[in-house]
Specification:
Blueprint (H helix, E strand, L loop, with lengths): L5 H12 L7 H8 L3 H12 L3 H19 L4 H7 L5 H12 L3 H17 L3 H5 L4 E16 L4 H12 L6 H4 L2 E7 L12 E8 L11 E16 L5 H15 L9 E5 L9 E6 L3
Helix pairs in contact: 1-3, 1-4, 4-6, 4-7
Length: 279
């Protein structure tokens, strides 16, 4: 899944960014210098789905995440995920997940209570959550497809970033960064998307490898919290999503969660977790 051509990777990232909207593969094919039919064939051969079907899967998985992790009304979730009506959304959701949106939400209630019971007190005692507005920064990332445990994430980050040909001076102007796009309890492991790279603090510290893509993170509202070590990240995500945000009348918006590490030369220490919120 990770040996992927630049054209197919660009198509997947483009579809991911526009999953809730109607998109034109012809426009992307023209931009990449391919015929539309050839790009569709490359994409389908690699992912096993047509671009349109892949986009629909992303929409329905985001909807499942919002059903499981928030108390948003079902019709609001449907609209956020690009569906025009409750019946259309329900039919599509049932076809993908095997149950209605309401039943799916009810099935996750027990899981949530179990997840909350397993939280470590030491993680969220010192995390200092706060809501910020207009968070903006640029990241340079390589996308990995497939499940990664913590050690594999750290190893893969090193593999990608060692190929950027940065000088020691430029390496002091970056922050290691990870982006989580999917919920591992909903998206199949082979299709989990994790972006690994860094935040460039200086315009000259740009990656040279073509598999890096630039992402501009823009959140009108987000919650940020501190962690002491990478093993705290999953506990912190669970605590913020299932405990802290509901207590403060807030909800995630289903967009990607980002992690920025404090140290410039590795992803083993402390850092900041950011989760976008509904406006």
């Amino acid at each position: 899944m990770n040996c992927i051509s630049p054209a197919v990777r660009s198509a997947e990232i483009w579809l991911s960014d526009k999953a809730s909207h109607r998109v034109s593969m012809r426009h992307l094919a023209d931009y990449l210098g391919y015929s539309e039919s050839h790009l569709r064939r490359l994409f389908t051969n690699h992912f096993g789905y047509s671009p349109g079907r892949y986009r629909d899967l992303l929409r329905l998985e985001r909807a499942a995440m919002l059903l499981a992790r928030t108390r948003l009304p079902i019709i609001e979730i449907a609209i956020q995920c690009g569906y025009s009506s409750h019946p259309v959304f329900t039919r599509a959701f049932r076809h993908k997940h095997g149950s209605s949106p309401r039943t799916f939400r009810q099935q996750f209630e027990h899981y949530q209570q179990v997840a909350i019971s397993r939280l470590r007190q030491d993680v969220f005692d010192s995390c200092r959550p706060r809501i910020v507005k207009n968070a903006k920064y640029e990241l340079y990332l390589a996308r990995h497809y497939g499940k990664l445990d913590l050690k594999a994430q750290q190893h893969t980050w090193l593999h990608y970033t060692r190929r950027t040909q940065l000088s020691s001076q430029h390496r002091s102007l970056i922050q290691p960064a990870w982006i989580y796009h999917d919920d591992p309890d909903i998206t199949p492991g082979e299709r989990l998307r994790t972006d690994l790279g860094y935040r460039a603090m200086h315009p000259y510290s740009l990656p040279t490898e073509r598999f890096f893509h630039r992402i501009r993170i823009e959140s009108k509202r987000a919650v940020t919290a501190r962690f002491d070590k990478p093993t705290d990240i999953e506990h912190l995500r669970t605590y913020l999503t299932l405990v802290w945000l509901p207590q403060h009348g807030e909800s995630i918006d289903g967009n990607a969660t980002s992690v920025l590490f404090d140290a410039a030369d590795g992803c083993c220490g402390s850092g900041t977790l950011t989760i976008p919120l509904l406006h």
